[in-house]
Amino acid sequence: MEDTSFAIHPGAKKKIAGTAFRDIGNLISYSLSENKSFIGKCEAGMIQILFYRDDIVRIMMDHKKEPTLSSSHAVIAEPEKVDLRVHDEDSYITIQSPLLTLFLYKNPCRIKAVDKDGRTMVSEKEKGMGHSPGGEVICYKEMDREDHFYGFGEKTSFLDKRGEKMTMWNSDVFAPHNPEIDALYESIPYFMTVNQGKAYGIFFDNTYKTTFDMKTYKETYSFSAEGGLINYYLMAGPEPKDVITQYSYLTGRMPLPPKWAIGYHQSRYSYETEEEVRELVKNFKEKQIPLDAVYLDIHYMNGYRVFTFDEERYPDPGKLMNDLKKEGIHVVPIVDPGVKTDPEYPSYLEGVKGDHFCKYVDGKMYNGDVWPGNSAFPDFTNEKTRKWWGDKHDFYVDKGIEGIWNDMNEPAVFNETKTMDTEVMHGNDGDPKTHRELHNVYGLLMGKATYEGMKAQLKGKRPFLLTRAGYSGVQRYAAVWTGDNRSFWEHLQMALPMCMNLGVSGVPFCGPDVGGFAHDATGQLLARWTQVGAFTPFFRNHSALDTVRQEPWSFGEEIEDIVKKYIDLRYVWMPHLYTLFKEASTTGIPVMRPLFLEYPEDKETTNLSDEFMIGDSVIVAPILQPDKNHRAVYLPEGSWIDYWTGEEYRGSDYHLVKAPLDRLPIFIKKGAIIALGEKKMSTEQKEEKITFHIYPSSNGGEYYFYEDDGSTFNYREGKMYEGVLRYQIIGNVIDLTFETKVNAYEPDLEKEVVIHSGDEELTLRINGEEKGNTDGRSRMIKASLL
Ligand code: MIG
């Protein structure tokens, strides 16, 4: 009935239960413990305040007792020593670090946080923290007219989440994703607020179902949970990028992926047989379309039993993997959590004997229906089960597999609630908790088990994991794809803000199914989507059973050529992308960025959802509608150069840009340098030559270039290459210097520079030596470096 107009029957108006929230009340007494954590007793709850760093403070409230600092599945940081000053000023107390001051008002207990420049980040007035008799907890904050909200992980709709109400409850949503769907596969209960260019972040580390309401009230926003404690971290920014660095300090950063994981990937539900896979690869080779990975969806298994291959469809998987590897192609099989309850199936028997499956409080095993039929679900909250599951991946590793695809790990179950009974218990390493409390971390912990198992077995090689579900911290183990989108133009549009917000949420390695999963793609849609995919951190074409084929050649030659052009472009841009992946792995700052991250004070960027940046100097402005060959592009301050034509555009303005079907508008900031490589058939093919493209401006510029072996963890022992290219303009001379910073890995690269000097005639000097003038016509000069 929910799907028909009956849902809005005039007699159907539901009564909204008046939830009686009890305010925390007045502060009665307080103490400071040895580790300088502040404990306060209020009329209706106890609070604890603990600084992690000068710029990060954790605030907790328990309405029953003193909050316990129990361990978190998301946070990996430990509190550092912070120099705090505490003053009691009668009506309030201040707790001050060098970067952040908390004002704790007493009657009633309210919090205000101010940064070192006196900027008020959060404040509470009428309403503060509270709880309901049912155990829900809520925290209100004042909302300023200029507050804009970003992050929240994987959400539909536009970039700025002001005016949205969102739920965090990992959900398998096959129904078309639309702006009304407020809970998808990932739960990242974190956001940043940007107000006139300055930012702070809040991470509400509560694994129950949580709700963020930036909509209901005009002057307050709130975050609340069905249970547990108020437990949030306030991060002081002040720049939006600082907040991402602070958040990823708490929850961890993406390990540098193997290079093959950031090449082009081809998937289908499903490539059903070995012959089909070989045929697919043959097509790629014949058509000279680069390819790094092929995915095996659920048909590869024997009756959907994980850790098996169907012997008829895939008679010799080891040989298949090996043959493909020789062609530079990796295979990524799907692994779901559900284990078929079949007493003749070894994995099930092992799981039962080893006590690895989720159970009710009375000890009865929980079973639910998924692909293999009735199934049991590993309890990934236990270390011993994670170890068991991780070890089982030797089944794949032994066959030459280095990447795994985790699906259905919300966990999704085919029933009314779409998931496990919430009263199922998780062992949680001796601290048992209900599924209601730990639902949102099931996918994260499956990812942890898988990543760690693969890592141990790959003996120094970097594993690749792709996951559908996750919680804060998921970036430590996996890349995230945005689940079952459809071949709708609207979903291509939505993919941009969705991935940008995932990046803001500490998950730099993400992307949508290129071409759309469900529904039927068209050639035009695939062409435009591949143009976007060439620049999303994760780049995989995937489509569903019984939909129109979506491989690059499925729509005739014209489309094939365009699709190939942009897959090629991905490989040409690989050196620059890889350098940005490295940056993301050390700072958390994403590869794909909303413009406000670079230009936070520019109001035009506040809700700019149809353009994105790659690093800090490239803007991609794709066409996101059918039958369009032009669009308005916003370019922020400075000047911008059209990547294809070299034409210069004035910044801080909108421009009407032409973009026929084979054209993706790309703009490079004047002054910037980008490092590009050569076309390749896969990342396994050695990079031979790097070309540094310089778009000179009178201010000069520099570029850090990173390279390593692309496949092992040796870079962690310093086996990497880092060089910095700098230029200056003196009169009409462009003076370049190239300095090798780290040379513990010898990339054996030819290096070249191309100067895109626009209208200026420039003389090129490299490390002091003259190399000639920019050509009068093309205003370009090429020279070899070193
Ligand atoms: O919907 O394994 O999101 O990518 O192809 C069925 C089959 C379960 C959902 C995933 C999709 C995958 C599909 N899976």
Describe this structure in a few short sentences.
The protein has 786 residues and is of the alpha+beta class. The chain has a nine-stranded parallel beta sheet with strand order 33-32-30-27-23-22-21-35-34. Strands 2-3-4-5-20-17-16-13 form an eight-stranded antiparallel beta sheet. It has a six-stranded antiparallel beta sheet with strand order 1-11-12-19-18-14, with no helix packed on it.
Attribute tags:
786 residues; alpha+beta; Immunoglobulin-like; TIM Barrel; 3 domains; nine-stranded parallel β-sheet; eight-stranded antiparallel β-sheet; globular; binds ligand MIG
Question: How would you describe what is shown here?
Answer:
- The chain starts with about 20 loop residues before the first strand and ends with a strand.
- A hairpin with a 6-residue loop joins strand 18 and strand 19.
- A 9-stranded parallel β-sheet has the order 33-32-30-27-23-22-21-35-34. An 8-stranded antiparallel β-sheet has the order 2-3-4-5-20-17-16-13. The protein has a 6-stranded antiparallel β-sheet with strand order 1-11-12-19-18-14, with no helix packed on it.
- It contains 13 helices and 52 strands.
- It has 3 domains: about 20-250, Immunoglobulin-like; about 260-335 and about 385-410 and about 440-575, Glycosidases (TIM Barrel, Alpha-Beta Barrel), CATH 3.20.20; about 685-785, Golgi alpha-mannosidase II (Immunoglobulin-like, Sandwich), CATH 2.60.40.
- The longest helix is centred in the middle third of the chain and has 16 residues, at about 440-455.
- The chain has about 775 residues and is an alpha+beta fold.
- The structure holds ligand MIG.
- Ligand MIG binds next to loops.
- Keywords: Glycosidase, Hydrolase.
- This is Glycoside hydrolase family 31 protein.
- Pfam families: DUF5110, Gal_mutarotas_2, Glyco_hydro_31_2nd, Glyco_hydro_31_3rd.
- InterPro entries: DUF5110 (IPR033403), Gal_mutarotase_sf_dom (IPR011013), GH (IPR017853), Glyco_hydro_31_AS (IPR030458), Glyco_hydro_31_C (IPR048395), Glyco_hydro_31_N_dom (IPR025887), Glyco_hydro_31_TIM (IPR000322), Glyco_hydro_b (IPR013780).
- One of its GO terms (molecular function) is hydrolase activity, acting on glycosyl bonds.
